[in-house]
């Protein structure tokens, strides 16, 4: 069974269109697989900038870095060919820039300047028919001259707070020392006043009684009764009674001595 010529032509065109779409999709996918990370994201003047390439295959032939929207010889920064003694070959766009390439496809721009701002592109050659590309925008900013002035109020506030805190701490310490000294002096004065002011000891004299009393001795010896222990002075020994003879006529005298009359034997007689 033969296929008509018109049908074969339509089939060939459809197959060619499908292959073209597949190749285009593969190229777009290869570009989307690469990603350039800027470290730091917002570089300042005289600061090193690292353009790290993510998603690089394990094996590739070489890679080229470009500065600009177009990728040709005039915008080529350098070419890196791994596996040779001198892998990096600088291009016409390198100029006075200090750029170092790495085997993983990344590059380091040392001491970046505002003139280095622009579009950076990398093209990694996998083989003669497959090249992966990625690009990123770099903007190198001038150093912020207002940065010290913006931090000045903060530093001044911190300095003022430190000075005020130190003065407050010093005042508190001086107050504590003064309080301790005053309290110590007050306690010392109170103690001296308490020791110097002694109460007057002695019998109370009646100002209205001007009489003079005379003590007269008793005609007989006074002996405290033995049963009355309250009138005995423990510090003074009892007088030894004289030797008594055992005569009958002195029996009554001895009884009087042993059992004296509790009445007082002396009288206080006021004298004029």
Automatic annotation (TrEMBL):
Entry superkingdom: Eukaryota
Every Immunoglobulin V-set domain range: 46-140
SUPFAM superfamilies in the cross-refs: Immunoglobulin
InterPro entries: CEA_cell_adhesion (IPR050831), Ig-like_dom_sf (IPR036179), Ig-like_fold (IPR013783), Ig_V-set (IPR013106)
Pfam families with a match to the protein in the record: V-set (PF07686)
UniProt keyword terms in alphabetical order: Glycoprotein, Membrane, Signal, Transmembrane, Transmembrane helix
Family per record: Belongs to the immunoglobulin superfamily. CEA family.
UniProt protein name: Carcinoembryonic antigen-related cell adhesion molecule 19 isoform 8 transcript variant 10
UniProt organism field: Homo sapiens
């Amino acid at each position: 069974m033969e296929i008509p010529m018109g049908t074969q032509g339509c089939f060939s065109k459809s197959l060619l269109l499908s292959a073209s779409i597949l190749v285009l999709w593969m190229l777009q996918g290869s570009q989307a697989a690469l990603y350039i990370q800027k470290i730091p994201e917002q570089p300042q003047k005289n600061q090193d900038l690292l353009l790290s390439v993510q998603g690089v295959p394990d094996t590739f032939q070489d890679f080229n870095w470009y500065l600009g929207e177009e990728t040709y010889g005039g915008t080529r920064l350098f070419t890196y060919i791994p596996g040779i003694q001198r892998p990096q070959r600088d291009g016409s766009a390198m100029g006075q820039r200090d750029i170092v390439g790495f085997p993983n496809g990344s590059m380091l721009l040392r001491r970046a300047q505002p003139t280095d701002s622009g579009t950076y592109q990398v093209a990694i050659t996998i083989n003669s028919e497959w090249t992966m590309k990625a690009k990123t925008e770099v903007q190198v900013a001038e150093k912020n001259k207002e940065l010290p002035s913006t931090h000045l109020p903060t530093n001044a506030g911190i300095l003022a707070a430190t000075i005020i805190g130190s003065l407050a701490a010093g005042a508190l310490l001086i107050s504590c020392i003064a309080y301790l000294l005053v309290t110590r002096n007050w306690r010392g004065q109170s103690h001296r006043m308490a020791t110097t002011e002694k109460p007057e000891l002695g019998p109370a004299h009646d100002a209205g009684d001007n009489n003079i009393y005379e003590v007269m001795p008793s005609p007989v010896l006074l002996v405290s009764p033995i049963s009355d222990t309250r009138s005995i002075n423990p510090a003074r020994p009892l007088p030894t009674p004289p030797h008594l003879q055992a005569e009958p006529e002195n029996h009554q005298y001895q009884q009087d001595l042993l059992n004296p009359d509790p009445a007082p034997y002396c009288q206080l007689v006021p004298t004029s």
